[in-house]
Write a structure and sequence with these properties.
Layout: H1 3-31, H2 39-48, H3 57-69, H4 71-80, H5 82-104, H6 109-136, E1 140-141, E2 144-145, H7 155-179, H8 182-213, H9 215-222, H10 226-230, H11 232-249, H12 255-275, E3 278-280, E4 284-285, H13 286-289, H14 293-320, E5 325-326, E6 329-330
Antiparallel strand pairs: 1-2, 3-4, 5-6
Helix pairs in contact: 1-3, 1-6, 1-7, 3-4, 5-6, 6-7, 7-8, 7-12, 8-9, 8-11, 11-12
């Protein structure tokens, strides 16, 4: 365990925190057309109104941390995925603007609802395809990206994009199961069941595709002694999936959301095992891309101060708005 590995875990934690926290409000946007116009959509919006913009703090930390701690990886990944990054940012902008304006411009609320859905879907799809582009490998010559503008566009990246959309829809639906009551909650539970099965299917498809994508990936999952360390992940993922379906059938409130988060955690753990020790497969390791040691120490001091503050105010916000949502907001 050295500074470079510590920074790798910090970046991974920031990405995971962003995915699970911003994922459920993007998921609500993806599912938005399935809600009845009027009070049901308003309640779904109100459930995320106090927290949605703060969730993106983790996106800034993940991107900024990658630039500061692994500058070579940042310099390779961005040129390889510029269209996806631009699409994601535009989607987040449209989602944010629509969120605010649908309340202030009732005459065009239908348009803003469409923008909210479109922005959420584009952002989720772009994030998943960026992950797929990274996993399938980025062509590097010397210390720079040497591929074409559209190397990121493949059947594999479309699969990872759809998997991310389904996973975010699952998070959004289980969040609404927790936060809503009555018919709206029952509707959210039905959506969560469908999103869960779609997520399971796409997670399985991506996992199998990974074994065919790269011999090194297959070796980590199918040969000894690596298989002994990797095997618990799919087993725990399967157990979590079963518990999630069971919790949705027994009409639990918060439990499905926590199990959906656990499903994402094991998915991220599987990705970590698949990629380790590369930050840009197939040839750029964490140590190849790392900043100088003094820079890492300097930044670590800053993170040691700011991350506890971010965690504290995030936890406080979720604690304050911990109840159910009615027609007039939280109660």
């Amino acid at each position: 365990m050295d500074l470079t590995v510590i920074w790798g875990f910090i970046i991974a934690f920031a990405v995971f925190a962003y995915v699970v926290m911003d994922g459920f409000d993007l998921g609500i946007g993806i599912l938005f057309p399935t809600f009845d116009a009027g009070p049901e959509r308003d309640r779904a919006m109100n459930s995320i109104a106090p927290v949605w913009d703060g969730n993106e703090t983790w996106l800034v930390l993940g991107g900024g941390g990658l630039f500061a701690a692994f500058p070579l990886a940042y310099a390779v990944i961005l040129p390889a995925t510029y269209p996806l990054i631009i699409a994601m940012l535009l989607g987040l902008v449209f989602r944010g603007v629509a969120f605010e304006y649908r309340w202030r411009d009732p005459a065009h609320r239908q348009f803003w609802d469409m923008a909210f859905t479109g922005g959420s879907f584009v952002a989720a799809m772009a994030q998943g395809m960026t992950l797929g582009a990274l996993l399938q490998g980025i062509e590097i010559t010397g210390r720079a990206y040497s591929g074409s503008w559209f190397d990121w566009f493949t059947p594999y990246t479309l699969l990872t994009g759809l998997g991310t959309v389904a996973g975010y829809a699952l998070l959004g639906a289980t969040w609404l199961v927790w936060k809503l009551e009555g018919p709206s909650q029952n509707h959210a539970r039905k959506l969560a069941k469908r999103a869960a099965w779609a997520t399971f299917a796409l997670m399985g498809a991506v996992s199998l595709y990974n074994l065919l994508l790269n011999d090194d990936y297959a070796a980590k999952w199918l040969t000894a002694p690596e298989i002994y360390f990797a095997a618990p992940v799919p087993v725990l993922t399967g157990i979590t999936a079963l518990l999630l379906i069971r919790s949705l059938k027994t009409e639990r409130h918060s439990k499905p959301f926590w199990l959906a988060l656990a499903l994402f955690f094991f998915g991220m753990a599987g990705l970590g095992i698949t990629m380790w020790p590369y930050v840009v497969p197939p040839g750029l390791t964490l140590w190849d891309a790392a900043a100088p040691e003094r820079s890492q120490i300097f930044m670590l001091v800053g993170v040691a101060i700011t991350m506890p503050l971010i965690l504290a105010y995030t936890a406080w916000a979720y604690w304050v708005f911990r109840g159910k949502v009615g027609d007039e907001g939280y109660h």
